[in-house]
Amino acid sequence: METPLLTQEELAKRWNLSTITLSQWRWNGQGPKHVKIGRQSLYRLDDVEQFEELNTRRTTSESVFKTLPAHF
Q1: Three-state DSSP string of the chain
Q2: What is the pLDDT of residues 24-63, one digit of tens each?
Q3: Hey, where are the domains in the chain?
């Protein structure tokens, strides 16, 4: 089964972020992996959920921002 794709606007709404923040994350190599189709950046729901899981913390002293290893 194919995983759904989220637009930049949908992901920004899901995380209560601006689309500019997502653009900056892509530029800096942060955030979840994205798929570039034409001029549009799309996010696989599976990648978004995996990114959320990796960045779930129990305390505020835990590492702030984790990214997926390159082989994922």
Answers
A1: CCCCEEEHHHHHHHHCCCHHHHHHHHHHCCCCCCEEECCEEEEEHHHHHHHHHHCCCCCCCCCCCCCCCCCC
A2: 999 999 999 999 999 999 999 999 999 999 988 888 776 6
A3: 5-53
